[in-house]
């Protein structure tokens, strides 16, 4: 099953209709095709991370999802309502179901934290008493119970983003769009904001779409990933699939530093053909079940080879063990490399024969 099939299967599944369904959207900015044939769907409660290099089209996509920008073609459906078909007035009502948080927080500087959070409730016409109760509840939720009367300039960056999150959640949106929500924050504050968003998703079940250029954000928060490149989807899948076996060049490049790579001295020692004393060296990409098995033991038993682990490692990606091992097979003399490769392909996300090295190198 391909990664796209996983998405399509969910779309066709017996469960509830998707909360967000995007079909073939396109958007042109001047002479530039900023988005081209973007399709995906998202179930209620899911968290989708959209990543891409600068200029890939991330901001344009999130602006289209929020209804701030119109598409030139295709459709966007939120909770069964096709927002791309709505008039500006009808869109205003649906947009109350969509919350948004921003890189630079976008708080009103002349209003207190509580007044900023209250704004969407004023617009939605909530009565005063309920508004005040709701604001107190939201400030507690984001850990700012004691800061209600502070102005933005009296708050740290992390606290400002907490106000932004409380404001976005005020009218109980079904969909929360996060536009580079942690890009202006230091690493420690980033971790605490991502943990808060994760907690909110678990407690309130809010569906989230986050755009970012940082793979660390995707790894910490997303469950599904779309990699955008030049306005098109280069690749999509679960976060474990993307980290475990990336397929597109752009994903490989965005993951640099997040996946084990062959150390330079080993790469320099690699030869394309076997030579006396050499062993074939494989890169084995693993995720989930196959990362926990007895792969190397079974390999040794089945082919009477001696697997020598030269490099690699596993990391935890949203509860799934994901990683790569660089394994040389000593004493593989008579063992058929093709059969070994097909054995490994059946037990891994991906396996590649990199060349031949002296195993102790
Ligand atoms: N008015 C415009 N006319 C022509 N091209 C535009 C216009 N506005 C944006 N673009 C181009 O559209 C592309 C997509 O821009 P967008 O801001 O969506 O990308 P992005 O992935 O969010 O980038 P970044 O991470 O740098 O914010 C970029 O190449 C940008 O230069």
Report on the architecture of this protein.
With 361 residues, this protein is an alpha/beta fold. The protein has 2 domains: 3-97 and 173-254, 3-Layer(aba) Sandwich (Rossmann fold); 264-357, Alpha-Beta Plaits (2-Layer Sandwich). It is 36% helix and 29% strand. The chain is built from 14 helices and 14 strands. The chain has a 6-stranded mixed beta sheet with strand order 6-7-8-3-9-10, sandwiched between helices. Helix 4 packs across helix 5. The longest helix is centred in the middle third of the chain and has 18 residues, at 187-204. The chain is elongated, with a radius of gyration of 24 Å. The protein starts with a helix and ends with a strand. The site of adenosine-5'-triphosphate has 13 residues, from strand 2 and helix 2. Residues 29-30, 32, 34, 52, 54-60, 213 line the site of adenosine-5'-triphosphate.
Entry summary:
The chain is an alpha/beta fold and 361 residues long.
Present the secondary structure layout.
Blueprint: H1 3-12, E1 20-29, E2 32-42, E3 47-52, H2 58-66, E4 73-78, E5 81-82, H3 88-95, E6 98-102, H4 113-123, H5 128-141, H6 157-169, E7 175-179, H7 187-204, E8 207-212, H8 215-221, E9 224-229, E10 232-238, H9 239-244, H10 249-254, H11 264-269, E11 279-287, H12 289-292, H13 295-303, E12 306-317, E13 320-330, H14 337-346, E14 350-357
Parallel strand pairs: 3-8, 3-9, 6-7, 7-8
Antiparallel strand pairs: 1-2, 1-4, 4-5, 9-10, 11-13, 11-14, 12-13
Helix pairs in contact: 4-5, 4-6, 5-6, 6-7
Bound molecules: adenosine-5'-triphosphate.
Adenosine-5'-triphosphate (ATP) binds next to strand 2 and helix 2.
